[in-house]
Amino acid sequence: MAWDLPDVTLNLRVLDLIGIFAFSLSGALLAVRKRFDLLGVVVLGCVTAVGGGSIRDTLTGTVPPVYLRDETYLWVAILGAMSGFLFGPRLERFDRTLSVFDTLGLALFAVSGALGGITLGFGPLGVVFVGALSGVGGGVIRDVLAGEVPQVLYRRDQLYATAAACGALTVYLLHGQVSDLLGQLLGALVVIGLRWLSRRGRVRLPVRRLGDEGS
Description:
Mean pLDDT: 83
Shape: globular
Structural class: mainly alpha
Number of helices: 9
Order of helices and strands: HHHHHHHHH
Low-confidence stretches: 1-6
Radius of gyration: 17 Å
Largest sheet: none
Distance between the termini: 58 Å
Number of strands: 0
Strand content: under 5%
């Protein structure tokens, strides 16, 4: 099935807006937990929201990034951050709530990154690379600014970049086999499913520890 450019553009916009809101809310919730003031919450939320999209746009040659050419993206990011500031203190389990929105943003940006790579004719490795970086970019920036080690570097029990890469690969493999929307949905579900399984200890990456060889 051929990709129709207007449909691709619309799908990217919808995925972006939902992903931006989710990532912005995840950044804001972390900022609230860290006791940032209002400005700090909005800044962390917005930077988290546009980070993945900026990476995707840069890798796919869309300069300047979409959010600078269409302020709707920034308004959605601000809305997500303000929602986190207003309702964050009422949420009893920050970790669980943060993980839900972080996973949603990861999935949507990984899928939109893969979609952008496909439209430019990238091969499987290029699509996976763009999708994975688009997915993890916002979360990495959020964690660094909040003074935490990015999950992508050490949380083997909670697949992050691997989940994003698998979601992007799913979109690539389904290209031309199913409808555009279904391929994107299945790719996002792969990311969410892998994150869910890894959080329950059913899927994890191996870790090489010092002393494994014996003495």
